[in-house]
């Protein structure tokens, strides 16, 4: 199970929840890519994500490694 990586809202100490659909920050993208490298040999049969932009960006980063 993964949480989405850092967003600018996280970095600024702000809450975002469902009302604010922010994207991953550069650090968040790097975190997702690092997770992808760590899991590069794991085969996933299913991936379930929230409809939030930041959550949808993580599997794309996992696949790109």
From TrEMBL:
GO terms for molecular function: fructose-2,6-bisphosphate 2-phosphatase activity. CDD domains: HP_PGM_like (cd07067). Coiled coil: none annotated. The keyword Lipid biosynthesis does not apply. The keyword Aminoacyl-tRNA synthetase does not apply. GO terms for biological process: negative regulation of glycolytic process; regulation of pentose-phosphate shunt. PANTHER family: FRUCTOSE-2,6-BISPHOSPHATASE TIGAR. It comes from Liparis tanakae (Tanaka's snailfish). GO terms for cellular component: cytosol. This is Putative fructose-2,6-bisphosphatase TIGAR A. Keywords: Hydrolase.
